[in-house]
Amino acid sequence: MIAHQPIHTLPEALQAAGFAGQIETDSALRAAMATDNSVYQITPDLVVAPRDAADVVRVLQVLQDPAFADVALTPRGGGTGTNGQSLNRGLILDLRRHMTRVLEINAKDGWADVEPGVVLDALNDALRPHGWFFAPETSTSTRCTIGGMVSTDASGKGSRIYGKTSDNVLGLEVARPEGLLSSLGPAPDWAVPVLAQAERAAREGKAAFVANTPRLNRRFTGYDLDRACSEGGGFDWWRLFLGAEGTLGPITRIRVKLRRIEPEKRLIVAGFATFRDALAAATPLLADDPTAIEVMDEWVQRIAQEAGILAGLPPALRPEGPVAYVFVEFNGHDAAGIDARVATCLDRLRALPGQVALYQARDLAEIRRLWAIRSAGVGLLAKVDGPSRPVAFVEDCVVPPENLPAFVDDFLDVLRDNGLGFGIYGHVDVGCLHIRPALNIDSATDRARLVAVSDAVFALTRKHGGIFWGEHGKGMRGAYLPEWIGPAAYAALQGVKAAFDPAERFNPGKLVTLRRDRMGIATTPFRPFNAPDGDALDKAFRCNGNAQCLSYQAATPMCPSFKATGDLRQSPKGRADALRAWKSGGAVAEADLLAVLDSCLGCKACASTCPVQVDIPSMRTAFYQSHYSRHTRPLPDRLTLLAERHSGVALRVAGLARPLWPLLRPMAERLLGAVDLPERLARPVPRHDRIALADLGKPLPAGTVLLWQDWFTALFDGQVALDAVAGLRALGYRPLVVGMHPAGKAAQSLGAQGAFDAMAARLVAALTRAAASQVPMIGLDPAFVMHLRQDYPKAGYAPPALMLPQEFLSAELAAGRRFPSVVQGDGPQPRILSHCTETTALPEAGAQWAQVFAAIGLKAVPEATGCCGMAGLFGHQARHQPVSRRLFDMSWRPHVEAAAPVVATGFSCRCQAERLSGRALRHPLALVAEALGNAPAA
C-alpha cells in the first residue's frame, strides 16, 4: 500500500511534470481564495494558475499518482459566487489569472471559442467590432468569467429574451488525466467508456428528472439529464457540465453562441409609492414585450439615496419620500417599432396605481448610467451600519411570474416571523427576486435563522411551483438537491458523477456526492463577520467579496495592482481577506501580509469606489503601526520619513543643493532602493509670486488666491507652480504660492503616527491661519488635496477646505464669472489626463476641466485612464518596476504618445510619463496660460 504524501510535496511534483504556471502556497493568497461573495470561508492548501489547457491536463495527471489520492481539485473563475461555489480544501485551479484568451471569433456563423478565465465584459469588448455580443448580462460583468458563468449557469437582465448561459453555449472542452475531451469533435477512445457510463445513468434518470423540474424560463440546470439526452437518441454529454460547478471536472474551452448587437435601446424608469405597487406593475408590462423588467425596493432606494448614488438620477425620478423603482428596457433593430411599444408602455404605466415618477432615456450613455445606478444601489446593500448586513443565501428563487406576488407575500411573512429586515431587487419579468435578509453571521442566533429561513423558503418555492436556485448557482445550497429532485433522479445524478469523477475529487461535497459528506449551509465554516468594536481593521471584515475591485478594464482606477498582475492577493478583496485572517488568529503569516500590503499603490481608489469603501491604505497604516512597534523599519523607509519630515529645510537650501543633486541622486537611489528619481531640483518661485507664512491671516487684495504645494511638488516640480500662477493670472486672479509645510502623507502611509501627527498639526495650523484671510485656497496636486480631504478627518484633523484648481474655477463660472476667451484653431484638441485618486474621489474632475477650457473658447477632452503606475514613491522603487511599467502601458502610454497635446493634473503622472515615454507633460493651467498669451518660461 502506498502512503499518501503531504500536499506540500505536490508543488515539486507539478514542477517535475513541466507545469508552466504559478504554484502558490502563500498564506495571503490562500486566504484570498478562501472566500467569495458568500458568508463562507474554506482555506485551500495550494493554489495553481495554469497557463493553458495543457497545464490543466498536467495537474490532473500528477494528481493521478496514488500518493495524492486525497487531494481535492476545485476550478475557480472570478470568485463572485454568492454561495461558496468555488471554495474548497485541497488545490484551487485559478483559471482567471492566465487562461483569459479569446481563441477564435467566427463572425460569419455567430460563435466564439474562449478560455474559461475570459471576463464577460472583455469578451463583449472583443466581439463588439464584429457586431455581436454574448447575451447573458450579469451584474458582475466587469469581473465574472465565462467559465464561472457556465459552471453556475448564470443569467441576469434580459434572460426572458436571451436565456441563461446554458442557452447560449454550443459546446465545451474539458480536461481529463488522459487528455482533452471536446464536444466539438469525435470522442477519443479513452473517453468512450466514460461517456457510455454517463449516458446510461442519464437515460435511466431522465423521466424522474423531468417530472421533478418545473418548466420555467429560468430552468433548472447542472447535470441536466433532459437536454443531455436528446429525443433523437443523441447524447450531448457536455450539457451535464452546464451548472455543475466544477464537480464533474475542469472546463478548458467554451464555444459560445453570439447574438447580433441591437442598435436601438430605450429605457423607462418608473417610480412607485410602494414596492407592492411596483411589483404589481410588472405583469401588465409584459404585454409590451420588453427585453427586461427589473425592480428595486424602498430599502435599496434609501441606501442608495444616503450614499449619494441617486443624485445621478434625473430630477423627474427623485420625488419626495420613499420610492420603489421599475426599470423597463426595450432593445431591437427597428426604431419605429420600439418607439411604438415604448409609447404604449408609457401610457400603461401612467394608468397604474401608485405611479409617482416617470422618465424615458434614449441616449445609450444615459441608459448605461441609469442601469449603473441600479447596480450600485444593490452593491451598497452591504454598506449598512451595525453587525447585521444583508446576506445572499435565499436570493435567487424563481417562480412563475404570475405566482410572484403570492410567493413574495409568503416570503416576507417568513422574514417578519424571524424578525429580519431585508432589501429587494430583481428580474420580475422571469419571476426572480433577489431578497437579502440582514443577518449577523457571528451570532449563533442568526446562524440558526439562516437555516430556518432557508428551509422555509425552499418549501415556498415548491409550494409555488418554482426553483430554489434560479440565477446564482447552488454552492452550499446544493444540500437541498436530493430532496428537491427526488431519490430516483438524484441516483441518476450520482451515476453521472461516478462516471466522470469516481474518486469524488472535483469540488467534493458539492451538489452530488457518492460516499463523501455533503457540505451544508450551516455546517460549512463561516467567515468572521465583524471586527471587535472600534478596531482599525473593521473594513476588512466588512468586505463581502462583491469583488468590484477585480474589474478588468484598464481605464477603471480600482485596483491597479490587480490589473497589472491578475493576482487575487494583489487586490482590495485579497488584502482585506489577508488582514481579516491575520486579525482573526494568525492564519496568514505576517511576512506574507507585509508582501501584499507593500504592493498596494496607495491610490485610494478602493476608499471611494468600493461599495463598502474597503480602504486598504488606511488599514495598511494601522497594520504598519502594529508591526513596526515590534520590528525595526527597513532603512529606505526610515530615510523616506526623514526626507519628508525635513523637506522644509531641504527646500530652503535647494539653491545650494541644486548643483550637487546630480551627484547625490545615484547615492539616494542606492540607499532608497529606487530608480529614476527626478533629475532636477525645482527652482524657487519668484519672490513676488510668494507669500510668507508670517503674512498668512492678514487682509489680502481682492482676487487673491493662495496656492499650496506638497513636499514632492515643491522640491521637484517648480514648473507646476509657475504654470498655475501664469494660468490663474491670465484668468484675472492674483495667485500667491504659500510656503510649503509637508502633509505627512509618507509618514501616515508607513504607519509612523507620531511623525504624521506632528506634520499634520503644523499644516492644519498654517491652513487655519491662512483661512482667516478669507480668500480661496487651492492645492496644486490632487494627491495632496485628497489626502487632506480623505485621510485627515479620519485621523481626527479638520483642515479648512482646500480646492482643486478646476473645482475653484468651475465654481467661479457657476457664480457668473466670465473668463477671457480665444478662438480655437484647427489643430488637435488637447487631452486631459487626471490623477486616479482625483477621478475616483471626484468623478466630475475631467468634466470640470473641460468646462474651464470651454469658458476660454477651447475644447479639451477628458480621457478615461487608470493608474499611471507611479503613485508617489511606488513607481520609483526598484522592486515595483514590472507593475509600475505594466500599468503605464495599459492605459497611459497610448494617450501620452498620441499626437494631440496632452496635459496631466498629477505630479506623479507627469513624472511617470516623462521617465517612460520621454514626453514632458504640463499641468492644464499651463495650457490656459499659453492660450491666453501669458505662458511662463518652461
UniProtKB/TrEMBL annotation:
Gene3D superfamilies registered for this protein in UniProt? 3.30.465.10, 3.30.70.2740, Alpha-helical ferredoxin
Q: What residue stretches are annotated with the FAD-binding PCMH-type domain?
A: 40-261
Example GO molecular function = FAD binding
| Cofactor(s) listed in the protein's UniProt record | FAD
- Domain 4Fe-4S ferredoxin-type: residue ranges: 591-622
Q: Which UniProt keywords apply?
A: FAD, Flavoprotein, Iron, Iron-sulfur, Metal-binding, Oxidoreductase
Matching entries from SUPFAM superfamilies are given as:
alpha-helical ferredoxin, FAD-binding/transporter-associated domain-like, FAD-linked oxidases, C-terminal domain
Q: Which domain of life is it from?
A: Bacteria
An example GO BP is:
lactate catabolic process
Q: Which PANTHER family match?
A: D-2-HYDROXYGLUTARATE DEHYDROGENASE, D-LACTATE DEHYDROGENASE
According to UniProt, the name of this protein is FAD/FMN-containing dehydrogenase
Annotated source species: Gemmobacter megaterium
